[in-house]
Every structure is written in structure tokens, then in C-alpha cells.
Amino acid sequence: MDEQARKTALRMIPYGLYVLSAGTEQGGLAAATINWVTQTSFAPPLLALGIKTDSALYDVARRSGDLVLNILGQGQGGLAFTFFKHAEYADGKLAGQDIGWAANGAPILSAAPAAVELKVRHVVELGDHHTFIAEVMDVHLTRSITGRPDESVLQMKDLGEKVFYGG
């Protein structure tokens, strides 16, 4: 296979950007920017999320099984970059960001326009990212979304010409 052609073709898949958080204030927290997310079922509502196996997020997500998918909006590239690195919880903030708490105990980023509470139902252990299949337990909208909801989401391409993931 031509490696450059593979990268080009796979990078043509559009990606939204999200901050996935896991754990609880008492049991240890982790969060990271992710982009491999898709809905896989309507009933029950299920999402598939790719999580890098050597990340702190992976360990906490496996242990707790309770997640929050914080959906980033247009103009929140800085927030995406914040969670490209290790997220510390200190003084009631996660990586310096204001948070609230989901019913499952995981943190919700106050700045995210939407958040989805998830319960891990299955993990597919293949590759360098494992696929977490998680059921939607609740949703939170922090502001009114006008127009097409999918047009309000921060996308990988919004971070600039040199930022890629995948391929």
C-alpha cells in the first residue's frame, strides 16, 4: 500500500473535536481531546469512541466506565489544544477550566456547548486505540444551538493546515 496515499485518503474523513473526561473527583480524573467519535445505534443510543491505549484517559475510562463527551464548538480551538496534554485537576478546575459534575460523577467542561454522559458497555481491544462502545445516559446543552447542530461543532480542519490526526 502506498503510505502517503493511505494517509491522504484517511485524512479525508471529517473529524469533530471533543474533550472526553472520565473518573470522579474522589477516584481520579482524566481528560483528553479526541476526534474518533461516531453514533452507532439509535436504540439504545450508542457512541463509539477511539481512546489511545497508552493514555491516562484510557486507564481511568477502563476503571470507571463513566465518561462525559464534551462537544467543542466553533472557535474553541484553544480548548482543544489545552487537552492535547496532561490535564491536572486543581482548585476545582480541570486543566484550568471551569467544570461541573455529571450525574455519573465525571466532569463536564462549563465552556463546552454540549456534553453527553456515557456508560461504557463494551471495549473492542484492537490496534493502538481501543474502541469504547458507550451508551448515552443523559445530555447537557449549555447554550441554545441555532441552525444545523453539526455546523456548530469544532472540526479538526479548523485548527489549521498543519494539524492532522489519522492516516
Automatic annotation (TrEMBL):
Q: Which UniProt keywords apply?
A: Oxidoreductase
Indicate yes or no for the key word Transmembrane helix: no
Q: Which InterPro entries match?
A: Flavin_Rdtase-like_dom, NADH-dep_flavin_reductase, Split_barrel_FMN-bd
**Keyword Transmembrane helix, does the record have it?**
no
Instruction: Check the record and name the SMART domains matching this protein.
Output: Flavin_Reduct
| Pfam families in the cross-refs | Flavin_Reduct
- Superkingdom per UniProt: Bacteria
**Which Gene3D superfamilies does the protein's record reference?**
Electron Transport, Fmn-binding Protein, Chain A (2.30.110.10)
Domain spans labelled Flavin reductase like: 10-148
Q: Which SUPFAM superfamilies match?
A: FMN-binding split barrel
Q: Per the similarity annotation, which family is this?
A: Belongs to the non-flavoprotein flavin reductase family.
The molecule here is called Flavin reductase family protein
